[in-house]
Amino acid sequence: MPDRHDGAELPAVPGVLTADQLRETVAAIAAEQASDGALPWFRGGQLDAWDSVEAAMALDVGGEHDRAVAAYDWLASRQRADGSWAAEYRDGHVVAPAVESNHAGYLAVGVWHSWLRTGDAALVGRLWPTVRRALDLVTAMQLATGAISWALRPDGTPDDTALLTGNASLSQALRAGVALAELVGEVQPDWELAAADLRRALCERPEAFADRSRYSMDWYYPVLAGAVTGAAATDRLAAGWDTFVVPGLGVRCVADRPWVTGAETCELALALAAAGRPDDATEQLAAMQHLRAEDGSYWTGLVYADDARWPVERTTWTAAAVVLAADAIAGTGPAAALFADPAALDRPAVTGPR
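Request: output the structure for the sequence above.
Response:
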């Protein structure tokens, strides 16, 4: 597989991470990629479409566009006829065949991010049919409440359960899909309607979603994804702060567990950047650096009551969250605005940076 660094400027967050340190982290992600482009949690570990896209986005930030393209092409080659991916792969084989909506949707975010970062029109053109099939599936899974079912039942019908974090991510995915549709000249009004109804559900219909308020992701993700903005975003972040934030260590994954995780902490940093609070975002990025390994990779989490890393794994998606948070805070390139300025998705760029 080609291995080319395109010379892109890497982000730096003064006092927290240098550009060289971010380059090490990008290299640590790349080291886990298989020769066929597959980008799992770690070499030999599980792969799911959402986390693989996130890791590919980090590779693009780090200038490893060829590797990001290989990861996207791997996913495109394994898309099923209904537009979905399996919930889990391992060494190229399907381990969990379930159809989950958030896995289907996130490719649109990755492709739009890659366009902003690199201006690779050929990649957009090649992956557009894949994105279109995936988002057609997502819209077909929308429930009467405006929320989107988390998965299909074995008989192919949408489950009645909708998950708040997944739906917030899908809100961002649908908006990215609309931007891509405009870019390629194939407007998708059904996606626009689905995105608008989903946003109303996220902002006005909490009863549409399963109660998973123990999880920090349900707290900050509507802000991160740009569904909740302005004063409502400020209020939402304030409401959960004392529940989830452990000063100096990061963010709890679950409210009632003494366990902070790097990805959730970086995602809160992204939400804070989206809410116009870059200093607070920087503080959270700094707080989770105790998870950094010598090679630039990151441990998934820390059970701070026992001072023990758990699980004992260094995941590409944790490292990717670090890179994306640093990029959003630093504002290094046009792709940084995808998270730092949620409204930018509603002002699609008609040309890329090249």
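The CA atoms of residues 39 and 223 lie 27 Å apart.
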